[in-house]
Design goal:
Elements (H helix, E strand, L loop, with lengths): L5 E4 L1 H5 L9 H13 L4 E6 L12 H6 L8 E6 L2 H8 L5 E7 L2 H7 L4 H18 L8 E7 L12 H13 L4 E6 L6 H14 L4 E6 L6 H10 L4 E4 L19 H10 L8 H15 L6 H5 L6
Parallel strand pairs: 1-8, 2-3, 3-4, 4-5, 5-6, 6-7, 7-8
Helix pairs in contact: 2-11, 7-8, 8-9, 10-11
Length: 305
């Protein structure tokens, strides 16, 4: 099998933001370097949010200052609003990912914005980016992540039509990559297939990315369904650490090493070094005060070397 799957590493951001330990920017930059040495080429390195609300993400500028630009590597900064986007522009991030929500309930809790207000916020960022770009490639590339696609802790079930409508609105603004996120880990493989199909129909020219949490032990099954549906870009977090501090019960992401193992055993190419990933998962587990929850960090890979 020659198909390549891109795994966007989100451990330094979505992984660490929900851990009790607050790591210094220097340690978080070291995590980025270790993950890149293990094969990460796109990595969510920082979040430009107010440290009052997410102290684990304080010092984003310091993290980025410790990571000189390198060819072939893309560091992503997450933003919740225009103020965060302006902060991101003051750093060396290669990509900016705008967080949005499929529901008013989560949008108001996470950003203080309804869905319609979030779409307007994104439109303002897109317009400002176009005005400031000057020359092609001057501004970081832009993507959007749509949270609570498979369910909201405040509004409940989220319909396929609801997701397709919002994906279409985002794509109409010219956003080239849209991530669909199961923020609270309630999805199942069959609903993944349905919502990927609907999102692709609503935004045929956009790249779809999938972001799963393993809260209810369906994360890898959902990733499998996404790959089978033709999606080539998936998020994962080293060690399976993390979650969302604004979504009750949203425990860890699918683990990068577990996902790499599954895909490469099937013959897909990921570009990751599995042993280096397992070592990094164990390393970050020591720094957050407990073993990482991933299966591979406990059992190791197979066959044994």
């Amino acid at each position: 099998m020659s198909r390549s799957i891109t795994i966007v590493e989100v451990g330094p951001r979505d992984g660490l933001q929900n851990e009790k330990a607050v790591l210094e920017p220097s340690v978080r930059a070291e995590l980025v370097r270790r993950l890149e040495a293990a094969g990460a080429r796109r990595i969510e390195a920082v979040s430009f949010v107010h440290p009052k609300y997410v102290p684990q993400m304080a010092g984003a500028e310091e993290v980025m200052a410790a990571l000189p630009k390198e060819a072939g590597r893309s560091r992503i900064g997450l933003v919740l609003n225009g103020k965060g986007y302006d902060r991101a522009l003051g750093t060396a991030v290669d990509e900016v990912n705008v967080a949005m929500s499929a529901t008013d309930g989560f949008g108001l809790k996470n950003q203080g914005l309804t869905v319609d207000q979030q779409v307007q916020m994104l439109a303002d960022i897109v317009a400002g980016r176009a005005n400031a770009e000057g020359t092609p490639g001057a501004a970081p590339s832009l993507s959007a992540t749509l949270s609570c696609v498979w369910g909201c802790p405040f509004d409940g079930e989220v319909s396929t039509d609801q997701v397709a409508d919002l994906v279409g609105r985002i794509a109409a603004l010219g956003v080239a990559e849209i991530a669909l996120a199961d923020t609270i880990g309630v999805g199942d493989p069959w609903s993944v297939t349905r919502k990927v199909k609907a999102a692709r129909k609503a935004a045929p020219d956009a790249t779809l990315r999938l972001h799963f949490h393993d809260t209810r032990n369906t994360g890898l099954a959902n990733a499998f369904a996404g790959v089978e549906a033709g999606v080539d870009v998936l998020d994962a977090s080293v060690g399976g650490i993390g979650g969302c501090p604004f979504a009750p019960g949203a425990t860890g992401n699918i683990a990068t090493e577990d996902l790499v193992y599954m895909l490469e055993r099937a013959g897909f190419a990921t570009g990751y070094d599995l042993d280096a990933l397992i070592s990094t998962a164990r390393w970050i587990g020591e720094r957050i005060g407990g073993p990482a929850p991933s299966a591979l960090s406990r059992a190791g890979g197979w066959p044994k070397g």
